[in-house]
Structures are given as structure tokens and as C-alpha cells.
Write a structure and sequence with these properties.
This protein is mainly alpha-helical and 165 residues long. It has 7 helices and 3 strands, in the order E-H-H-E-E-H-H-H-H-H. It folds into 2 domains: 1-65, Multidrug-efflux Transporter Regulator, Chain: A, Domain 2, CATH 1.10.1660; 82-160, no CATH class. The longest helix is centred in the middle third of the chain and has 41 residues, at 84-124.
Length: 165
């Protein structure tokens, strides 16, 4: 992904290396998130390694859930600080907030992982039924299971009760 020193990229080449469309790169530039390193004599946008770094940075911030407008606002906030320590303090606060959000998401996903594992553990013991066993028998299964039916299973068993389906 490195651009050879002294070699600028046109917008299409930059977009391809960054796995973005040229349209997205123009949008980022129009929003002030990215600026061309220079222009060719013919007026073509030319970008250097810094543009790839910035596009990777934008991608990371979007992965954290920031919209392009929020990223622009973040940049405005940093630039308005005028002093390095104040700007980095603002960045630190944003990163701490995003870290808390990511950790909350990780916790939620770990809970879902545990539920799926319980569901799979329960379903492992469902293989003891004869192949011709009808599905309705599963709702009132009398076979032994390693664990109590988890919500993912009981929801299957009770999905149609009380409805017109």
C-alpha cells in the first residue's frame, strides 16, 4: 500500500489502493477530510502516502461508528484547540468514549456467544431422535439433554403458539 517516494497517485489509483471509489475520495475531499497533495499540469488530483494514511484513518473512525459528518466535526474540534495538548486531550476523550462503547459491544457479543454455545450444546443431544420423528414432538421433548433448553431453543418450540400460523 506504500507509494514509491516521489511518485504521486491519481484519484483512481488512490481509491483502488484504499479500496474506496473515486467518488468517495472526492466526497472526503469536498468535506475537508482529505486534500490532494498537488495537482498535475492538466489539473488532475495527485495524492501521496499521506492520503493513504488519512483514508485508513477515516476507515478506522467509521468502523468505530463515526459518520463522515462526525469525523469532520472531530477534526474541527481538534483544529480549534490551537494547542497540541488540548487537541490530544480532545482526541483522548473521544477514544475513551469509543473504547467504552466497543467494550460494551464485546460484552454483548460474548453474551450472544454463550447463548449460541448453549443452544448448540442442547441441539447436540437432539440427534438421538429417530429420523422420522415429527417436529411437533420437539416441542414436548422427553429425551435427556445435557442442559436445560436455553431461550434460543424454547423460542423455537413456542414460536407459533397463540398465533394464527
Amino acid at each position: 500500500m506504500n507509494i514509491p517516494e516521489g511518485r504521486a497517485l491519481r484519484i483512481g489509483d488512490l481509491a483502488k489502493r484504499a479500496q474506496r471509489s473515486a467518488r468517495a475520495v472526492r466526497l472526503y475531499e469536498g468535506m475537508g477530510l482529505l486534500g490532494p497533495a498537488l495537482r498535475s499540469e492538466g489539473g488532475h488530483r495527485l495524492y501521496d502516502q499521506n492520503a493513504l494514511v488519512r483514508l485508513g484513518w477515516i476507515d478506522r473512525l467509521q468502523s468505530l461508528g463515526l459518520s463522515l459528518t462526525e469525523i469532520r466535526s472531530f477534526l474541527d474540534d481538534l483544529e480549534s484547540a490551537q494547542r497540541g495538548p488540548a487537541a490530544m486531550e480532545r482526541a483522548r476523550r473521544l477514544f475513551e468514549d469509543k473504547l467504552r462503547q466497543v467494550r460494551d459491544q464485546v460484552d454483548a457479543l460474548q453474551g450472544l456467544e454463550a447463548e449460541l454455545l448453549d443452544g448448540l450444546t442442547y441441539l447436540q443431544s437432539c440427534t438421538s431422535c429417530a429420523p422420522e420423528t415429527e417436529y411437533v414432538a420437539c416441542k414436548h421433548c422427553d429425551r435427556p439433554h445435557e442442559i436445560e433448553a436455553p431461550v434460543l431453543i424454547t423460542g423455537i418450540h413456542h414460536s407459533g403458539e397463540g398465533t394464527n400460523r
